[in-house]
């Protein structure tokens, strides 16, 4: 337990800490750590069930085919021996499995701060911020509004601040007050200066993904030769379910893998809408859509870093609205986890809810999805903090509430909780207290009390009377106050001034050049 | 899947349904069912860890001893060969294990409505209402108030109404407007007339527990000979941790087991207060406190129905306040699950939170505890609906919100979600839709859409704009509205008039006799 002891002593002041911890710190949070998921995964599929979904996915690829709306990909796959009809690609299972076998089951992504490098795969479970909502809600505004750069910056500050957030996802809210042609330049400048965690690029056209790669190179202070050696960023793409890959998504991935960067392929198969109403069918379709892209990438760059994503949920059959954090969502995530292990690929899932405000429903739906991530052996948990309304709203209160849950999951995996050495069984302590005392004051307790238990930062454990006397504040309002306190104390992470200037110059130059086309 | 199909067709109108389903029903809920927990339990302890906790528990019993403040129990245990020093009992592990081996790993408890009989043990996971809070909160009152009979009746109506509540626990709120000497008579009359589910008796003095047994006999319309043959009710006791069993608790259990009724033994070991600060120590102590009572009961009535309970959590080391739904709570529940399987005993845990109001914190803490119940292989989940403030407050809104989560857990265990037959993989459906359609209208979807997915009753899946247009109501307020609707449509379950009159006459007579002493 000595390692854990050492790690816990860094609470409140590790070099990897987001902001400096002071006596006045807004919250006392857990230290940066790459949590290790020690739980045996929950596996609802029998071996025959795994085979059935695998066979279903293979037959989709062999018999039904997937559209690749990308001429370059079609040419490569034709060369690789796949049957092509128009834009439809038919892939044999031998080819798919041969290609998939080249993918690593584990890889690292470097951050500009080496203390924030991450490992994807193995038993790690890592969390990223909410990505890509076009709208924003907070308790002060009290309604849904279009995202702005300032809101995006504030959510990036939370991304950096919380040690339980391991990687930066896409824009935590889409800053629609910045023109789309240059938005990626401004937000990436903000991301690279306000955070020092692992970066993400949208695959929305050549210019965007290549600009991000250049900016990451500058921020890391590396040459092209160094950059291409191992991942320093990643992109995440969605297929256009059913059975279609769009041009820019595949294009962006090809640009990334050819320069050594990582890709996450996440079909969005809502059962009953873009996929069969049966969960096994929705999972099989999702697997097929993901594997054919990963097979392409492995053919182009054998051994490149790929993650298989899942976004299989269901619709509300009364309204057609997407549902999240449902029992069906949990089981499909677990099933996908079994399939990811079958293929030897790292896996991504998400923290999700359909709720519109940071209330009870938001937290039971999100809890369901986060425990499904744990149960499925997920390695990357996207949208783990801040998501509302099926991903259409980002909320700082929800971000902070989610981080409480994420910290509890991190703590849940600390081996000291389940240690059973003689000092843990504590027979001497039990003997000394006997049947007429209590354990508050004894040495066994005193030696351990500071780190024995999870310490919350937004949960209120006071009794009702004390809670009422302190204002009777409900969780979402408490989270809002924490949000304000964190913003007030936030300090941007250290950044080499030369690199920062170079980054600013790059942004200025690219803006002069007009940024990226907006005809996507 | 045919059984599931049949069961699902009973949705909205099974004979076992709580209230009659009509077009105007407040909610469309899932049918009564005894959910089967098909997940492999989460087991944080190695086999050596299990042995270490077992050995710790045995050494507590052998070397440190447990106080039994019950002369009859002391006499029995002396006769059984245990060493007795004053009120302290030392039990050898051979004796404990020999006695524990007599306990059934599974048993039934009959309800007065046979459709609501339950099986404790096996792979069943069953849910009971919140029990014993002295206080009440609802959104209309808006503050914490002392419990009343009317509030208790309303919560009993919810207990009956929701098919996902399988057994009645203790009083869902303590009706302090009824004098303590006759409270059990009035509440049991209410429980037995407003619900037809499995009954509970408090072990708070001879008169109370025996009155309840008489009332259950009357309600079931059985003779004493029939009554003693198998459980028709149960009691739940807590040890007075550390290391003590009080007089009335043991007395009540002895009265129950001698007449064939079931007992649940639940130590309340808050790590850092009444138990060691280390979770393995708190679990070992809890196991020791529970096993010595169960050993006593098995010696007295070999093969009697016993459940081992856990209520191991931790305190907030800053304030001493109890914490619930923490990572430490989850792990100790899982560890206790491993120990319960080691001893071959059915297990009880709880749905718990420290939150004071039905908000986000309430739901993440409760979700954590309910998923821990699933992960631990818990058979009886006490307090599964309606608990706030560490058990000091009952809330109808929280009850209804919790029932949404319980229904999702029930749905989560339906095998159809993870079925992988050809119709589930749905290759023909995928082929027919291809890459340019959607699945809404196709026959494969149409045939299944009515029952394909979990249908919520208090979750709101509308988008923000539609949600706002319908009033922008947060979850707790929506739950309050459902509470009112359910009360308005509630119909008490059928009850033989003769038995009801006999029950009323029993209550009247016992009140004339003065009820039960109140010097407990």
TrEMBL record, chains A, B:
Keyword Methyltransferase applies: yes
One Pfam family of this chain: MTTB
Domain of life: Bacteria
InterPro entries given in the database record: MttB-like_sf (IPR038601), MTTB_MeTrfase (IPR010426)
Region called Disordered, residue ranges: 1-28
GO biological process, one term: methylation
EC id: 2.1.1.-
TM segment ranges: none
Sequence ranges of Basic residues compositional bias: 8-23
Keyword annotations of the record: Methyltransferase, Transferase
Molecular function via GO: methyltransferase activity
Protein family (similarity comment): Belongs to the trimethylamine methyltransferase family.
Protein name (database record): Methyltransferase
């Amino acid at each position: 337990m000595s390692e854990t002891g050492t790690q816990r002593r860094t609470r409140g002041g590790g070099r990897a800490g987001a902001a400096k911890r002071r006596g006045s710190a807004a919250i006392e949070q857990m230290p940066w750590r790459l949590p290790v998921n020690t739980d045996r995964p929950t596996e609802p599929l029998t071996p025959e069930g795994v085979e059935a979904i695998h066979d279903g996915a293979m037959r989709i690829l062999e018999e039904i085919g997937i559209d690749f709306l990308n001429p370059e990909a079609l040419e490569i796959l034709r060369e690789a021996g796949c049957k092509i009809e128009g834009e439809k690609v038919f892939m044999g299972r031998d080819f798919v499995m041969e290609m998939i076998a080249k993918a690593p089951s584990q890889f690292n992504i470097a951050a500009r701060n080496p203390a924030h490098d991450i490992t994807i795969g193995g038993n790690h479970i890592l969390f990223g911020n909410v990505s890509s909502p076009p709208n924003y809600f907070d308790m002060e505004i009290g309604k849904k509004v279009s995202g702005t750069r300032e809101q995006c910056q504030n959510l990036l500050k939370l991304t950096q601040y919380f040690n339980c957030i391991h990687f930066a996802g896409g824009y935590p809210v889409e800053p629609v007050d910045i023109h789309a042609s240059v938005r990626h330049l401004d937000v990436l400048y903000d991301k690279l200066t306000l955070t020092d965690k692992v970066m993400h690029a949208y695959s929305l056209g050549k210019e965007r993904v290549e600009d991000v790669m250049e900016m990451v190179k500058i921020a890391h202070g590396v040459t092209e030769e160094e950059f291409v050696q191992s991942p320093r960023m990643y992109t995440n793409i969605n297929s256009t379910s059913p059975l279609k890959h769009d041009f820019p998504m595949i294009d962006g991935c090809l640009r990334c893998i050819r320069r050594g960067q990582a890709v996450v392929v996440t079909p969005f198969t809502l059962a009953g809408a873009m996929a069969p109403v049966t969960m096994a069918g929705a999972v099989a379709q999702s697997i097929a859509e993901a594997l054919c892209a990963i097979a392409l990438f492995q053919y182009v760059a054998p051994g490149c870093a790929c993650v298989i994503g899942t976004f299989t949920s269901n619709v509300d059959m009364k309204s057609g609205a997407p549902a999240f954090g449902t029992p069906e969502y949990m089981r499909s995530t677990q099933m996908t986890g079994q399939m990811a292990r079958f293929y030897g690929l790292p896996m991504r899932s998400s923290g999700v809810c359909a709720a519109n405000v940071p209330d009870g429903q938001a937290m039971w739906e999100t809890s369901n999805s986060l425990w499904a991530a744990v149960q499925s052996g997920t390695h990357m948990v996207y949208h783990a903090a801040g998501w509302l309304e099926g991903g259409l709203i980002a909320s700082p209160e929800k971000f902070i509430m989610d981080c409480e849950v994420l910290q509890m999951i991190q703590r849940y995996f600390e081996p000291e909780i389940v240690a059973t050495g003689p000092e843990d069984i504590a027979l001497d302590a039990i003997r000394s207290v006997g049947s007429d005392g209590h354990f508050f004051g004894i040495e066994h307790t005193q030696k351990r009390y500071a780190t024995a238990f999870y310490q919350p930062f937004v949960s209120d454990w006071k009794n009702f009377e004390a809670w009422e006397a302190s204002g009777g504040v409900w969780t979402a309002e408490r989270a809002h106050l924490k949000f304000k306190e964190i913003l007030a104390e936030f300090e941007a992470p250290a950044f080499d001034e030369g690199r920062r200037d170079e980054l600013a110059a790059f942004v200025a130059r690219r803006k002069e050049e007009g940024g990226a086309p907006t005809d996507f």
